[in-house]
Amino acid sequence: MAQVAGVGGYLGDGDGALIPGRWLVAAVLGSAAVVAWLMIRSGVAIDIGNPGFWAVCAGGLGLGGLGFAARRGAGRNHASCGYARLRDFADAGLVLLAFCLLGVVASYQVAALTSGFYDAVLERGDRLMHFDWLALYGAVVRHPALQRLGAMAYASAWVTPWVLICYHAWTGQRAAMRQFLCAFWLAAVATLALFPLLPAKGALEFLWHGPISYMPSNGLWQGIVIPQLRAHSVHLVEFTQLRGLVCAPSFHTVLAVTYIASVWPYRRLRGWLVPLNLAMLVSIPIEGMHYLTDMVMGAGVAIAALVVTRRLVLPLAARASSD
User: Fold this and answer.
1) Measured in Å, how far apart are the chain's first and last C-alpha atoms?
2) pLDDT at 323
3) Rg of the Cα trace of the chain?
4) Among 259, 242, 245, which residue's Cα sits nearest to residue 302?
5) Could you tell me if residue 78 is inside a domain?
6) CA atoms within 13 A on the CB side of 254
7) β-strands 5-6, 9-10 pairing
8) Which residues pair with 5 in a beta bridge?
């Protein structure tokens, strides 16, 4: 198994550190408990009557059923590695689905507990870096092709993780798969923990004055929903309308950096997933209405999560497997 030293260290199976599955289960259950506590505190619940909720439940049940069937098949035919691949994909997919949904729902609960908007602070950071958001927006407005490409690149955020866990499962790299899931979870937790420090409406609403010639993918969602959550005028979260509310750190940037570091060791994936995520990074200021300051913070969060996974979690996992 090839090893490649990336941002997060060696991201292949060769390090022999298999993060115990029970740790990932504990991360899911612990996150769910925290989100439930936040829901009680904020008064914002999940709308279980929404079709999106049942679609998510169906997806989760499907992955759970696939994992159960794969385990039974593996028990009957120990020589077949196909069952092991299906089991690993189903397990990782279920964990990834849980992390994604809990993270987005948690952003609504956290947003309800925030106060103030810090767009001026974030925009000041952009000026220090000589980044002109309005000039970039103007260029996108003048070129419809950039609008279409940017929207597609921004929406690709959830393509890479599923491709990656499919590849890990197919090639039998359980250790690398769990390392990726661990880094993903740590990055999401860190992003949500930092969110209350710098809530913002977004660059479009703060900087642009006049008719909006092009409405990015995120719309004006943050500036509309966050005040409603604070005023307790929103009591239900509909899964069909879920959108991230975190401006700083930029979670799309967190994802892109994490994906690039995780994909880099695999030549078959690197050639197209790295450019895809680089394109997503370029699209983030406009489609996500992020300041460059948000993106710098997001990159820092991703690097920290990858380093912690490598330097702290993996040694602990290796020690646990040897006991």
Assistant:
1) 25
2) 60
3) 20
4) 259
5) yes
6) 27
7) antiparallel
8) 10
Residue 10 clears pLDDT 70, i.e. is over it: no
pLDDT at res. 8 = 36
Query: Is 2 among the domain residues?
Result: no
Q: Which domain holds residue 193?
A: 9-322
Task: Write the single-letter amino acid at 183.
Answer: A
Distance CA 70, CA 88 (A): 9
pTM of the model: 0.91
In a domain, 1, yes or no: no
Are residues 304 and 258 in contact, defined by beta-carbon separation less than 8 angstroms? no
How far apart (Å, rounded) are the C-alpha atoms in residues 84 and 73?
9
Length of the chain: 323
- How far is residue 185's CA from residue 45's CA, in Å, rounded to a whole number? 22
Q: What angle do CA 242, 135, 260 make, to 5 degrees?
A: 50
Q: In the chain, how many domains are there?
A: 1
- Tens digits of residue pLDDT in 62-102: 999 999 998 888 666 655 678 889 999 999 999 999 999 99
* 17 occurs within a structural domain: yes
Instruction: In whole angstroms, give the CA distance from residue 65 to residue 87.
Output: 10
Tokens of 264: 């880099």
Closest by CA position to 3, among listed 170, 166, 169, 175: 175
